[in-house]
C-alpha cells in the first residue's frame, strides 16, 4: 500500500469539509429533490457503466488521491454540468457524490481516494452552478435564450475547470511531491478543451430536459458522447499495449544480463524525477521514463559472454559492447510512440566533452533526453550493489556526479537531480532477487550544488566507464 503524506490527508479532509459545507441547502429554499435524485442516479449509472466498459480496456481509472490531472473527467461530466445548469448550487453539489463514492478504485487507499474524488467533483459542480445561476443562466436555459445561454454556460465551464485545476495541483504538490512551481503548470489549459465539449453536451441536455419532451429526450445527448468515449478507450487500450511492449523488452534484457534486473526501472524512475524538476509536461515526462527504462535494450544484440565477463574487456570486446546504443536504436526505430526516447537510447553514453560514444557528440549536440538518462544511469550504477563491488552511499554518488558535471554530465541535469533527491529522497524499486542497495536511509543531507555555471567544470576528465555497467569512472568504478 502506497502511503499518503500526512499533509495530503489533511488537504483531502479539508476539501471534503468544504464540499459538505457547499452541499448544505440554503434556508427557506426548497430543493428539487426528484430532479436531484434523477441526476444523481444518471451520473452514477454513467460512472459505473464507464468503469465496467472501459476499465478492462486500459481506460482511465477513477481519480484518487494521486490527483492525476483530468482523471476526474469521464463521461458523466455532461450530466454534472447539466445539473449545474438546472439545479441550485447546493443541490448540484450532491449529484456527483453517489457515483464517486461507489466507483471502483484500483489503487490504495481506496476509501481516501473515493472521498477525495467525491469532494473534488462536488466542489467543481457547485462552483459551476454558482457562477451559472449568478449570471441568470438558468432562466436563459428555461427560455432557450440564445446566445446568452452560451455565455453563462461558458462562464460555468471556466469555473468548473478552475476549481479542478486548483484542487488537482494541490494534491500533486502534496501527495506526489511535484514542485510547487510545476504542480499547476498546464493543468487548466489541458482540462479546458474536454470540459468545454462536455459543457456543450450538458447545455443540450439541460435545454432538452426543460423541453416538452422531458428527461428522456435529454438522454439522447449521451449517445454521440458514448461514441467519443469509446474512441478514447481505444486510445488507452493502445497505451496499455505500448506498456506491455516495453515490459516485454525489459524482461528480455533482464534474462540476458542479470545486472540490469531492476536497473532499467530505477533509471526510468530517476529520469522521471529529473523531468519533473525541469518542469517537463506530463507527456514528455512519460516518454522520458520510457527512455530510462529502455536505455539498455540494445544489449539484446550483444553476446551474453561479454556482458557476464568478470575480467576487464579487451579493446575489441569493448568496441562490440559499445555498439549496444546503436543496436537499441535500431530495435525501437519503428515504435512510433517512443518519440524522443529513441534518441536517448542512441546517445545516453555520449559525454559533454565529446569523449563518449557512439558518435562523440559534444554539449548541445547531445539530445536533452540523452543527457537526463546519462545522469540517471550513472547514479543507479553507483548506488546499486553488484557482485564486483558494494553500493556507494547516495551522498558519495552525488558528489561524483557533481565532480564530473561539465565534462561527462550536463550540470543542469545534475543540479535538477540533486534538488529532487534532497526534497524526495531516493526510494528505488528493488527486485525480488536483489538486496536493497543501501542500508542507511535514502534521504541524503543537502549536498553542495554548484551555483556558478562553470563551477562544475574540471580540466580533468573521468576515466571511461565500463560499457557493460554504465558506471562513472575516475574513482575506482571503471574497468
TrEMBL record:
InterPro entries documented for this protein: Cyclic_di-GMP/3'3'-cGAMP_PDE, HD/PDEase_dom, HD_domain, HD_GYP_dom, HDIG_dom
TM spans (from-to): 6-26, 75-103, 115-135, 147-175, 187-209, 215-233
Pfam families in the record: HD_5
Biased composition (Basic and acidic residues): 454-469
Region (Disordered): 430-479
Keyword annotations of the record: Hydrolase, Membrane, Transmembrane, Transmembrane helix
A single GO molecular function term of this UniProt record: hydrolase activity
Gene3D superfamilies listed in its UniProt record: Hypothetical protein af1432
Occurrences of domain HD-GYP (ranges): 238-433
Residues annotated as domain HD: 260-382
Protein name in the entry: Metal-dependent phosphohydrolase
CDD domains named in the record: HDc
PANTHER family in alphabetical order: CYCLIC DI-GMP PHOSPHODIESTERASE TM_0186-RELATED, LIPOPROTEIN
Amino acid at each position: 500500500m502506497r502511503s499518503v503524506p500526512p499533509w495530503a490527508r489533511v488537504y483531502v479532509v479539508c476539501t471534503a469539509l468544504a464540499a459538505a459545507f457547499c452541499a448544505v441547502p440554503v434556508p427557506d429554499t426548497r430543493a428539487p429533490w426528484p430532479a436531484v435524485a434523477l441526476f444523481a442516479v444518471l451520473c452514477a449509472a454513467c460512472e459505473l457503466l464507464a468503469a465496467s466498459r472501459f476499465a478492462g480496456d486500459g481506460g482511465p481509472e477513477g481519480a484518487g488521491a494521486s490527483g492525476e490531472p483530468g482523471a476526474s473527467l469521464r463521461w458523466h461530466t455532461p450530466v454534472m454540468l447539466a445539473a449545474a445548469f438546472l439545479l441550485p448550487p447546493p443541490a448540484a453539489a450532491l449529484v456527483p457524490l453517489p457515483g464517486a463514492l461507489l466507483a471502483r478504485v484500483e489503487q490504495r487507499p481506496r476509501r481516501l481516494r473515493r472521498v477525495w474524488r467525491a469532494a473534488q467533483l462536488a466542489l467543481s459542480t457547485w462552483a459551476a452552478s454558482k457562477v451559472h445561476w449568478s449570471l441568470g443562466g438558468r432562466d436563459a436555459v428555461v427560455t432557450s435564450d440564445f446566445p446568452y445561454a452560451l455565455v453563462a454556460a461558458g462562464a460555468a465551464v471556466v469555473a468548473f475547470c478552475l476549481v479542478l485545476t486548483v484542487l488537482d495541483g494541490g494534491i500533486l504538490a502534496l501527495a506526489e511531491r511535484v514542485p510547487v512551481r510545476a504542480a499547476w503548470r498546464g493543468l487548466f489549459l489541458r482540462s479546458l478543451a474536454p470540459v468545454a465539449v462536455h459543457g456543450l453536451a450538458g447545455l443540450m441536455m439541460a435545454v432538452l430536459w426543460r423541453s416538452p419532451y422531458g428527461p428522456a429526450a435529454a438522454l439522447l445527448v449521451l449517445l454521440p458522447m458514448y461514441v467519443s468515449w469509446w474512441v478514447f478507450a481505444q486510445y488507452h487500450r493502445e497505451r496499455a499495449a505500448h506498456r506491455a511492449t516495453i515490459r516485454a523488452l525489459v524482461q528480455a534484457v533482464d534474462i540476458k544480463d542479470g545486472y540490469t534486473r531492476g536497473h532499467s526501472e530505477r533509471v526510468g524512475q530517476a529520469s522521471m524525477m529529473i523531468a519533473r524538476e525541469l518542469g517537463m509536461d506530463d507527456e514528455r515526462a512519460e516518454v522520458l521514463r520510457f527512455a530510462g527504462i529502455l536505455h539498455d535494450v540494445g544489449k539484446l544484440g550483444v553476446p551474453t559472454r561479454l556482458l557476464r565477463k568478470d575480467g576487464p574487456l579487451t579493446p575489441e570486446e569493448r568496441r562490440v559492447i559499445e555498439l549496444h546504443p546503436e543496436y537499441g536504436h535500431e530495435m525501437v526505430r519503428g515504435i512510433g510512440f517512443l518519440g524522443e526516447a529513441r534518441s536517448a537510447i542512441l546517445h545516453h553514453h555520449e559525454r559533454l566533452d565529446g569523449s563518449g560514444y557512439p558518435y562523440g557528440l559534444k554539449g548541445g549536440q547531445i539530445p536533452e533526453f540523452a543527457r537526463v538518462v546519462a545522469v540517471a544511469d550513472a547514479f543507479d550504477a553507483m548506488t546499486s550493489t553488484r557482485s564486483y563491488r558494494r553500493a556507494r552511499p547516495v551522498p558519495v554518488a552525488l558528489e561524483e556526479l557533481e565532480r564530473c558535471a561539465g565534462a561527462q554530465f550536463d550540470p543542469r541535469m545534475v543540479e535538477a537531480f540533486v534538488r529532487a533527491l534532497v526534497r524526495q529522497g531516493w526510494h528505488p524499486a528493488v527486485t525480488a532477487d536483489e538486496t536493497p542497495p543501501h542500508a542507511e536511509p535514502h534521504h541524503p543531507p543537502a549536498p553542495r550544488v554548484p551555483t556558478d555555471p562553470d563551477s562544475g567544470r574540471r580540466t580533468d576528465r573521468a576515466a571511461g566507464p565500463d560499457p557493460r555497467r554504465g558506471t562513472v569512472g575516475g574513482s575506482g568504478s571503471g574497468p
